[in-house]
From TrEMBL:
Species this protein is from: Neocallimastix californiae
Protein name in UniProt: Ankyrin
Keyword annotations from UniProtKB, A to Z: ANK repeat, Repeat
UniProt repeat feature ANK, residue ranges: 1-27, 28-60, 95-127, 128-160
TM ranges: none
Domain of life, source organism: Eukaryota
Listed SUPFAM superfamilies: Ankyrin repeat
Length: 217
């Protein structure tokens, strides 16, 4: 395990020649392949895959190599893995997060583009009912929000709390995102299951700029 964690390819080759089980894992389910993925060591990842490691294997928290690469902003490893035959783009970890969701959380538009252009599902939701679009919107990443809308995401999508992207933007006081969502056609009059609209959320949050903007619509 240490050799993979530390990036020593020659040691790994030696251990494999002596009968090391590549799929042997520690108490948390980490294999040499997953440790190399966590550390972004593309050379070791390539070698272990050539020797038969399962590209879709995961640790006990459901973290796959692709999820780890995206979570750690390793664009080169993400690019390599999405092109690997048999890769599962949308596997989730124990929190229901896939690689695209982590890229959105990290505001990494380059990785978002790689995953979307290779077929990652925009509509998959995590355990809180948020898809990648809602994750980006709830944090306030306008470039990713705009990109996902351009690629067919439902701008009126809601999470398990029945909050849409505009409501999150109003709660966070993100006027730039509020204007973007309005311009892109979001239903700004929609009430959630608690009877709240984006306007009431902005008003309750004492955000005068957003409140004034929405009242004028």
């Amino acid at each position: 395990m240490f050799a993979s964690d530390s990036g020593h390819l020659n040691i790994i080759k030696y251990l494999l020649s002596k009968g090391l089980d590549m799929e042997e894992c520690d108490v948390e389910g980490w294999t040499p392949f997953l440790l190399a993925s966590q550390n972004g060591n593309l050379e070791i990842v390539e070698y272990l895959l050539e020797k038969g490691s399962d590209v879709n294997s995961s640790n006990y928290k459901g973290k796959t190599a692709l999820i780890l690469a995206s979570e750690n902003n390793n664009i080169n490893l993400v690019q390599y893995l999405v092109e690997y035959e048999g890769i599962h783009l949308d596997d989730k970890d124990e929190n229901g997060w896939n690689a695209l969701m982590y890229a959105c959380r990290n505001n990494n538009l380059d990785i978002v583009k790689i995953l979307v252009e290779n077929g990652s599902n925009l509509q998959i939701k995590n355990n809180n009912g948020r898809n990648p679009f809602l994750i980006a919107a709830s944090i306030g990443y306008t470039d990713i929000v705009n990109y996902l809308i351009d690629h067919g995401d439902n701008i009126n999508e809601t999470d398990t709390g029945d909050w849409d992207a505009l409501m999150h933007a109003c709660q966070n006081g993100n006027f730039e995102l509020v204007k973007l969502l309005y311009d892109r056609g979001i239903d700004y009059c929609r009430e959630n299951k608690n009877g709240l609209t984006a306007l009431t959320i902005a008003f309750q949050g004492e955000n005068k700029e957003i409140t004034k903007f929405l009242i004028g619509k």
